[in-house]
Design a protein that fits this description.
With about 240 residues, the protein is α/β, with parallel strands linked by helices. About 30% of the residues lie in helices and about 30% in strands. The protein binds adenosine-5'-triphosphate and magnesium ion.
Length: about 240
């Protein structure tokens, strides 16, 4: 079974008598180890899809199996447990805790897993090393560049050793050089077998992915693997 198997996902919002369909009959299948970029205009449903795939939100209709588990069968507590074990998140804004060192920020997700402090610090420092920040562990986020802060956020997302990294515009707040550096980090993680699904407006990031999914108005309108010719848009 694929790591992600979502079928006919809908996510609809009711706002003052009006319904907004953020996702319309989205099918998504992602294999272990793939790197998928999601592109599309503002409001097309990209973040909504990421929230459903990331178990932050539930679909209004449709089925979603993560690593063979039917997520609809899980209550909120179990869903959160599966999320914490399986998924690492990175957002456009780095969401680091000010006043805590990079090391403490990265170690924070391990607090909930009953991991002893010594091991938490060892794993956090290894995660920081893996994103090239072994020499910045004691720095406060305010003492780091944007690119460095985003690499801390990636280390924090990975310290729990998730199966899947989800990122929503990870280079959106970075200058060109920092964005390129972050792309290098993502390439390395993918090469080590991590499954990556990210939303991006950055052409270089999309070009580096194995596969690019384009959304418009809640639909997946194209889904192409590197080296394949573009598919015709799916009928609405
Ligand atoms: N909590 C909510 N309540 C009502 N409507 C929502 C909610 N969240 C998203 N929407 C609507 O769903 C649609 C898709 O939103 P979404 O955030 O997924 O878009 P997006 O593709 O991520 O856009 P952007 O590129 O601007 O981040 C939009 O029309 C949005 O207004
Ligand atoms: Mg969004």
């Amino acid at each position: 079974m694929s790591l992600i198997e979502a079928t006919q996902l809908w996510r609809s919002y009711w706002m003052g008598g009006e319904v907004v369909h953020a996702l319309r009959a989205v099918d998504l299948r992602v294999e272990q180890g793939e790197w998928v970029a999601i592109i599309g205009p503002s409001g097309s449903g990209k973040s909504t899809l990421m929230h459903v795939v990331g178990l932050i939100d539930r679909p209004t209709a449709g089925t979603y199996f993560l690593d063979g588990v039917d997520t609809a069968s899980l209550d909120d507590y179990r869903l959160a447990g599966l999320r914490n074990r399986s998924i690492g998140f990175v957002f456009q804004s780095f969401n680091l805790i000010a006043g805590e060192t990079a090391l403490e920020n990265v170690a924070a997700p391990l607090m909930y897993g009953g991991v002893r402090r010594v091991e938490r610090m060892q794993r956090a420092s290894a995660a920081l090393e893996s994103v090239g920040l072994g020499d910045r562990m004691a720095h406060d986020p305010s003492q780091l560049s944007g690119g460095q802060q985003q690499r801390v956020a990636i280390a924090r997302a990975l310290v729990t050793q998730p199966r899947l990294l989800l990122a929503d515009e990870p280079t959106g707040n970075l200058d060109t050089a920092s964005g390129a550096e972050l792309l290098g980090v993502l390439r390395g993680l993918h090469a080590q077998g991590l499954t990556v699904v990210l939303i991006t407006h950055d052409q270089r990031v999309a070009a580096a992915a194995d596969r690019v999914i384009e959304m418009t108005d809640g639909y997946v309108v194209s889904d192409r693997r590197r080296g394949e010719s573009p598919m015709e848009p799916a009928p609405a």
